[in-house]
Design brief:
Layout (H helix, E strand, L loop, with lengths): L1 E2 L10 E2 L22 E6 L15 E6 L4 E5 L5 H36 L9 E4 L4 E4 L4 E3 L2 H5 L4 H15 L3
Antiparallel strand pairs: 1-2, 3-4, 4-5, 6-7, 7-8
């Protein structure tokens, strides 16, 4: 953006840059666990003594084969209770992994859109003293800055669409 601030006594043009990222709305994360992706081992509980320790195979270890996440549980006396508890922990860990994967994906998309914000990466210039808007990608200039700021960007969107179609056809 190029403008002459009211506080500028010499009338020099000041230049500012801004970046904008358009991101899709976040979706809820669903964790589906396929039973065929699980390796479930049962073994004897260990630890300080008690009636069930070292007498029954109540401890459970679940390995999620696609991710390598391993959850072991021996808190309860029952193998079934330990299995249910281990599945809840596994689901929570897989949920966290999926959230992190999506976050990294969104961050990469955002960074690709905004770049570094350097002046050399300029896409559009809004010049207030000349009432001018220039889109540098398609080399289109209009002297209707006031209309562009009101959202009347049809001329630019049509020209950008035509350029995209031209590039898609390999011209």
């Amino acid at each position: 953006m190029q403008r002459v601030p009211e506080t500028e006594s010499a009338g020099r043009i000041h230049t500012s840059t801004a970046t904008v990222a358009v991101m899709p709305e976040a979706e809820d994360v669903e964790v589906e666990i396929n039973q065929n992706d699980l390796k479930i081992d049962v073994y004897r509980s260990t630890g300080p003594g008690g009636q069930s320790v070292n007498t029954t195979d109540s401890a459970v270890r679940i390995t999620h084969l696609p991710t390598g996440v391993v959850v072991s549980m021996q808190d309860e006396k029952s193998q079934l209770q330990n299995r249910e508890k281990a599945m809840r922990v596994l689901r929570a860990r897989l949920y966290d992994l999926e959230l992190e994967r999506r976050r990294a994906e969104l961050d990469a998309t955002r960074n690709a859109q905004i770049g570094s914000g350097q002046r050399a990466e300029k896409i559009r210039t809004y010049n207030f003293p000349e009432n001018r808007v220039t889109d540098h990608r398609i080399k289109l200039t209009t002297h209707q800055l006031d209309r562009a700021l009101q959202g009347e960007l049809d001329e630019f969107t049509e020209a950008l669409g035509a350029e995209e179609r031209r590039l898609a056809l390999g011209e």
